[in-house]
Amino acid sequence: MLKGIVLWSSGTEISTGVSRWRTEQSYVGPMLSNVWHCISVQDIINKETCYCLPQNLTTRDQGTHHEESNNMNEPAKTETPVAPTKTEKPAETKASKGKPKEKETARETIESIVFAFVLAFLFRTFEAEAFVIPTGSMAPTLFGRHKDLQCEQCGYTFQFGASSEVTRDGTVLIPNSRIHEARCPNCRYSNPQAFEAPPFKGDRILVNKFQYELGTPKRFDVVVFKYPEDSKTNFIKRLVGLPGETIRIHHGNLYRVAENGREEILRKSDPNKQRVIQIPVYNDNFPSLGLQEAGWPNRWAGVERTNAEGSIAGWSETPNTWKLNEENRSYQLTKEGQKPNQPTWLRYRHFAPKDSTWISIEANDPVEANPRLIGDFCGYNTIVEDTLRRSSTDELFWVGDLNVTGSVEIDEIQEGANFTIELTEGIHWYRCHLNPSTGDARLVRVEAGLNPDEEIEIATAKTSFKGIGSHSFWFANVDDRLCLWIDDDLIDFGEEANYESSELHGMMPDASDYTPVGIAMQGMTGSVSDLRILRDIYYRGSGISLENGELLLDNVSEWQRAYRNHGKEIDFFEVQIPEDNFFVLGDNSPMSSDGRFWESTHTVPRQAFVGKAFYIYWPHAIPMGVESGYAVTLSYHKKFTRQGEIVTDRSYPLHYAPFYPNFWRMKRIR
Length: 670
What we know:
By secondary structure, the protein is mainly β. Among the domains are: 4-75 and 100-132, no CATH class; 146-204 and 618-668, no CATH class; 280-375 and 400-535, Jelly Rolls, CATH 2.60.120.560. Helix content is 13%, strand content 34%. The protein is built from 9 helices and 40 strands. A hairpin with a 4-residue loop joins strand 20 (323-325) and strand 21 (330-333).
């Protein structure tokens, strides 16, 4: 007899921007002992999605289940027998013999199978459904059709979008659309092996359809909804604006505008959810050998304050302080390298190469390294197709919301010991002082435009950063809030860690943003390693590009002038949301078709919502042996002939075997 119901769905293709759909079959089958997606009936009652629904519900479970069914307007209820009491005589108290028992067993089996299909249909209709992401407008949160690539210069692995290669069904190539190169977000090298890299379908996700039947969509939910301009098409975006609000976008941030015109920045209430959507800028574990051989400077270096010739934003390199260990990419500070009675600084300089840099290196020409402002570069978007025209969305706007993370090994603690992490944003510098003797943490602000030597205390807290040994750290200045994690624990500074940028005289870059991250030790020795820089999502206010925007990031004065003159035109958006409507945006702002650009409306009505996306249950499988040659090609792409016929393109494989699941990306959507 069927003991339970297992619900499987290979997914419905869902549009992330202006993309397409494909509906596939859902399946039901017997529950197997090795099905790991099996959770309790109480989870169903709590509206948590499950895959295995037990057939025999308790009386309490039935009552709750039927109550929910009434809310879903189900046509009928299934009556389940209740265990007999002592005063009741249950029917068939004696065991049946022979054929009647076989008939009863067969009847129960048929009923169970019918019940399984009915319940699977109801589950798919009202509770949860699987979808496939076709494009990259929600990257890096969700991947559409894409390719994985390991940079041949620095070894960094990244993903880039490949949905532009194919038609809506994902199998037929669009003429002259093959991706030839993809730029590494770490070293900016344009990798030609992108052409031969195998493509993968987008993430398969689960959407809770029942949650919005009883509750209201919340800000920053990732939602699936019917596209307002075509109700047959489903979109997936992040909900950022609620009914009745006025939402404003500028400087990459989202603001709610009050009736008096005052702006309030919108941020995720849980910093841990904020942390998972940060975008990589530079990972020091993957230096480029080609850049090093060409004499390109290391991005992290020991520095001291000086106005000497060749200094960057008042910082000059000091080779005798922090020492780099090339083998493990750690930076060591000993007693001999310390500055007496003052912090000894290790600083990040944003020496991001350009295309012209790599062209010069390949031609064995000399290269000139100049620091730049950190921009809204996203490796997922930086591809070169057959047209040899690079996307104009590469990098246009300065991003001041930064994160730095790494590990510190404390070897010796002296009197007055202090470990400092600094993030700059224009003329506002934010520091976190950690005392390894007591574990105390202090957040301070420096107004460099007024007095660069005066620290204004913001907040204090206790941490586990205490004593000799190793610790991990993560310091973030995102959405007008300072956050600190020590050993992966969020440190509670309270509301004092929030600030209002409107009180800080504007949000323009300064020369200090060429060197926006610093780490210092005073009265202690040790090393730091695993250093990574990340940035927040930069929401663009419009689809208009700033002419030569990428070049302006080389010159802070020119960038300031251009933004003052054209910022309102190119980086500003405002929408008034009607009642019972919501405003949505894609995480991959440069490539997202969302509420900023729709023609008939900028908002989504409440009744258009399908549900909340909550889990990536099947990212693309990882093929084995593609490079070594022992992988088996299962299918190929198709292409158009000159006569318009569709034929198989055996030069471009589509699916391989063997493969294994990509467990690392199976996770909750936040």
